[in-house]
Amino acid sequence: MTVILGQLFTGVSIGAVLLLIALGLALTFGQMNVINMAHGEFIMAGAYTTYVLQQTVTDAGLSLLVALPVAFAVAGAMGVLLEWALIRRLYTRPLDTLLVTWGVSLMLQQLARDVFGAPNVQTKAPDILTESTSLGTDLSIANSRLFILGLVVLAVAALTAALRFTPLGRRIRAVVQNRDLAAVSGIATGRVDRLTFFIGSGLAGVAGVALTLLGPIGPTMGTNIIIDAFLVVVVGGIGQLKGSVIVAFVLGMLQAMVEYLTTLSVAKVIVFVAIVAFLQWRPQGLFTLRTRSLA
Amino acid sequence: MTNLSPRTRVWLGFGLGAVVLFAAAPALLTDFRLSLLAKYLCFAIVAVGIGLAWGRGGLLTLGQGVFFGLGGYAMAMHLKLADAGEGNMPDFMELYGQLDELPAWWAPFANPVFALAATVLLPMLVAFGLGSLVFRRRVRGAYFAILSQALAAAMVILLIGQQGTTGGTNGLTDIEGFFGYDLDDPVNQRMVYFIIAGVLLALLALTRQLMHSRYGELLVAVRDSENRVRFLGYNPANVKLVAYVVAAGMAGLAGALFVPAVGIISPALIGIVPSIEFVIGVAVGGRAALLGPVLGAVAVAWAKTALSERFPGTWTYLQGAMFVLVVAFLPGGLASLWGMVRRRRERQPDATVPADGDRVLVQEVAA
C-alpha cells in the first residue's frame, strides 16, 4: 500500500513538473498554434536567472521568491523579442516556425555555454525545501516536490482566471476562436499575439525556477524535457487548458507506474505507444474546440 | 542548356554525377577525405528520403534518425556477430558479463541475408506501423513532427537503457570486418565508398522517377491542398504513407552503409539532434528539388567537420543561424536561387516552392 501511495505521489510530482512546462506551451502552441522549440531555452533562462540572482541575494529563500517574478519577466521578454523578430512572419507556416525556433534554441544554448560555461551549475535551495514531510510510517515526500505542486496549482488557477475574467483574457480567447472576426471587431490581434506569447514564455521562466530545485542547471536542460511537454499539449487537445492539466497528471502517473513495474527506458516507450494509441481514439486530443473547419 | 530535351538533361546530369563520384573524387581526395565523403554521402541518402517526404509531401519528419539507427544497428549486429565468429558472443556482451548466452532476438542477425533485408525492411515496417496509424486518423503537420521526434527520443532512451544487449551509450563499436573484407584495409574502405556512391545514384534515379510519376504529382497535391485531393476521390493517407515508408527505407539503407564506412553506430548518432541535423541539410539545399537535399546534406556535413573541430562554439551559432535564415527567408533553399535567376530571365511561374493550399489559390486567382 505504501509503495502504491509512494508511486502515486511520484506520478503526481512528475505530472506537476510536466504541467508547469506544458502550461506555457498550452498558450503558445495550444492557443496560437506556434511550435516554439526555443521554449526549452526559456526554461533554461529562468533557471539561470535564479542562479544569477543567488549571486547577489544570498538568502536562498528570498532569492527563490524574487526569482519567480524576475524569471517570468526575463523569459517573457525573450519570448516577445522572438515573436516580434521571427514568429509573426511565419504564422502561416507552422512547420517552418518549428525549424526556425529550433535554430534559435541552438544559438541560445551556445550563448548559455559561452556566458555561464559548459558545466552544469547548481543553486542552493532554502533549507525548508531540502527537507521532507513524512506521511505515516515509512512514506515521506520531498518538500521541493510539494512546493512545485503548489506552484503549479497557483499557476493554473492564475492563468485560468486571467483567461476567463480579464479583458486581455477575453481578447485572447476571441483571437483563438476566430481571428478574422476578432480583427474586424477592433481587436489588435498582433498585440494580443505578442501579449499571449509574453505570458506563455514567462511561464517557461517560472518552470525554470522550479526546476532548479530538482537538479542542476545546464545549457541543454530544456531540450529533453520539452518534447514530453509538447506531447502533453498534443494529447490534451489545443485551444483550452483543462486537457493539458488532466493529461499531464495522467501521463505522470502512467510513467511512474510503468517505471515501477519495468524500467525507466521501457516506461518511456510504453508511454509513447499509449499516446499513439490514444490519438487513434481522439486524433484531435482529449478536448477540442469545435470548429467548422475541415478536420 | 535550353536546347536540350529534359530526357537528355537527366542523362547528362546522372553522367556528370557518376563521373564526379566514381572518377574525380577517388582520384583527387586522400583516403581520409574519401572516407569522410563516404560518411557525408550516407547523410545524403537520408536527405533524399527527407526531400521526398518533406519537400514533396509536406511531412516534416524529425525522427529519421530512428530509421537510420534501425538500419545501422541491424547491420552492426550482423557484423559484430561475424567478427565474433560462429557460436561466440560479441565482445561487449562478454565485457558487461550480464548474459550467459546470445539473446534470442540477436540470433537471426547472424544470417547475412536476414540482416541485409532487415536493414531496409525493419525501418519500413516501423514507418508503416506508425504512419498508417497516424495518417489515417489525420494527425498531421506539427503534430506529426512532434510525434516523430518523440519516437526518436523513445528509441534513444530504450537503446541506452538496455545496455547489456545494445551496447548502451557506447553503441556498437570496433567493427572490423565487412562480409569477409577487413575494414582496416584502405582498399576495402574504397570499396565501401563505391558501394555508397552507387546506392546514392541508384536511389536518386528511383526518386526522380517517383517525383515525375503520377504518384509524384499526387504527393505534391496532398502537400499543397490535402482536402482538395480527398474530394477528388484519393485517400491522402495512403499517398503520405508511401512517401514516409520510402524515406524510412532510404534512411535504413543509409544507416546500414554508415556502419562499415565509419565503424560505429551509437545512440548519439541517431537521437533528436542528429535527426534534426538531417533536416537542416535538406532545408539549406532546397527541400523540394531532387539534388538540393543531396548537395545541402554534403555541404552542411562538410562545414560541420571543417568548423566544429576548430571553432565548436562558432559552428553551433552558424548552424542555428542557418536554420533561421534559410527556413524563414529562403524556404526553397539554395536550389531556389538558381530558379529565381532563371525565372527572372524567362518570367515563368515556379511550382517547386512549397506553399500552403490557400495561398496557392490566392496566387492562382491573382494571376
Report on the architecture of this protein.
The complex is a heterodimer of chains A (295) and B (367). Chain A is an all-alpha fold. Chain A has a domain of 204 residues. A two-stranded antiparallel ribbon of chain A has the order 1-2. In chain A, β1 and β2 form a beta hairpin. In chain A, α2 packs parallel to α4. By secondary structure, chain B is mostly helical. Chain B has a domain of 255 residues. Chain B is 73% helix and 1% strand. Chain B has 16 helices and two strands. Chain B has a two-stranded antiparallel sheet with strand order 1-2. In chain B, a hairpin with a 2-residue loop joins β1 and β2. In chain B, α3 crosses α11. The longest helix of chain B is centred in the C-terminal third of the chain and has 27 residues. Chain B starts with 5 loop residues before the first helix and ends with a helix. The C terminus of chain B is likely disordered.
